[in-house]
Design brief:
- By secondary structure, the protein is α/β, with parallel strands linked by helices.
- It has 14 helices and 13 strands.
- Strands 2-1-3-4-5-12 form a 6-stranded parallel beta sheet, with helices on both faces. A 5-stranded parallel beta sheet has the order 7-8-6-9-10, sandwiched between helices. Strands 11-13 form a two-stranded antiparallel sheet.
- The chain is elongated, with a radius of gyration of 26 Å.
């Protein structure tokens, strides 16, 4: 379809192209004061009818185009990720900025997504997913400002996230107070504990909090695969095992976000010679939902015989017929802080001003433990 130009609108209205340009080509600034409001309204209406879109490159040459921010995130069916995207869009709209979003959950590689960002001439990027340093090199070479939002650490770049270590530490403290003594934490197979991939970090931070919570009460911690778990001989009264899911389970399908928790719980149930844990701690609410469903299908009494917890405080954790204990991230506050940092960096680049040191740091905001029915006080040893 042929692109509608200002000349096309001018011909349709019997006006000159410069007159139309004063209204639709000035980047949202007030039209020339000599133009009648009737003429302005006619031009705007005709532009809308004809599907006119401003030429960003032409506006950039005039310094008139609005700021365009790129958002790279991993959404799919993950509520917390899509909440971040919604809040970014809302905040940028309030500031008169435009937004380009790319969801890499559905298969688009990070390199391709960053390429699209650069082709679109974004003024800055919010990274709300895990990335490798190499993914960012082309953007950094062009001096493009980047801020992380619930992302992995990006050397020399600011990032905003929740304190996941403390969130899991609080979770373990709560479970200990409720009488739970044998805990199993689920993590992804691509966690850095099992690979040399430093860009995978979320489960790693959760694992650190898990281990610290165990050690605070004199407990022991072990980590490994299902084969390692089968040989695990816990010592003492309070023990935890970080269980790595098989690599094939970590290959997600866009519309099966619950599969990992479901499949690994199924593995635990198949090992009939092993006692079930008191608690299964999931890295997010989706895995927790899959785990609970698998336990219920096996005829287990959840939560009185076995407990499941999540992370993120999604609607699943609240609206499921067994509400489950989770950890709430301050999503709105995190998003606002990340947007403010990025806009400030863009303004300083345009004004050729130096950045402050706090604009290069990791900003960790506190989490909130949300206790629900799934972690009730321990009453008996689990059994099938």
């Amino acid at each position: 379809m042929k692109r509608v130009t200002q000349a096309d609108i001018a011909r349709a209205l019997g006006l000159s192209q410069p007159t139309v340009g004063l209204v639709v080509g000035n980047g949202g600034k007030k039209p020339h004061e000599k133009l009648k409001q009737e003429t302005i309204d006619r031009i705007l209406q005709k532009a809308k009818e004809m599907g006119y879109r401003p030429d960003r490159h032409a506006q950039a040459m005039r310094g008139a185009r609005p700021t365009l921010i790129g958002l790279l995130y991993e959404g799919g069916m993950m509520q917390v990720s899509n909440e971040r995207a919604y809040n970014v869009a809302r905040l940028l709209k309030e500031r008169g900025c435009n937004l380009l979003t790319l969801d890499i959950y559905h298969g688009e590689s990070v390199d391709e997504a960053m390429g699209h960002m650069l082709e679109s001439q974004v003024d800055g990027v919010i990274v709300a997913c895990t990335v490798r340093p190499s993914h960012l090199e082309p953007a950094l070479e062009r001096g493009l400002p980047i801020v992380g939002l619930a992302s992995n650490d990006m050397p020399g770049l600011p990032a905003v996230r929740c304190d996941m270590r403390d969130g899991f530490l609080r979770l373990v403290e709560h479970l200990h107070s409720e009488g739970h003594r044998r805990l199993v934490q689920l993590i992804s197979a691509s966690d850095p504990c099992f690979s040399r991939r430093p860009w995978r970090w979320q489960q790693s931070l959760q694992m650190q909090g898990f281990r610290q919570g165990l050690e605070r009460h004199g407990g022991t911690h072990a980590i490994g695969t299902m084969q390692d778990y089968a040989r695990w001989k816990p010592e003492g009264l309070f023990n935890g095992f970080t269980l790595c899911i098989p690599e094939e389970y970590s290959r997600r399908e866009s519309f099966q976000p619950f599969a990992q928790g479901m499949l690994l719980t199924r593995e635990l149930l198949r090992a009939e010679h092993l006692p079930l844990p008191d608690v299964i701690l999931s890295p997010n609410d989706d895995w927790a939902f899959g785990s609970i469903n698998e336990l219920l299908r096996a005829g287990l009494d959840v939560p009185r015989k076995i407990t499941v917890t999540g992370f993120n405080d999604s609607r699943l954790s609240r609206d499921f017929f067994i509400p489950f204990t989770t950890v709430r991230q301050p999503t709105r506050t995190m998003t606002e802080k990340a947007v403010n940092i990025l806009i400030r960096k863009i303004e300083k680049i345009r004004a050729k001003l130096p950045f402050k040191e706090d604009e290069r740091l990791i900003h960790e905001l506190p989490c909130e433990l949300v206790v629900a029915a799934s972690s009730c006080r321990r009453t008996a040893s689990p059994s099938i």
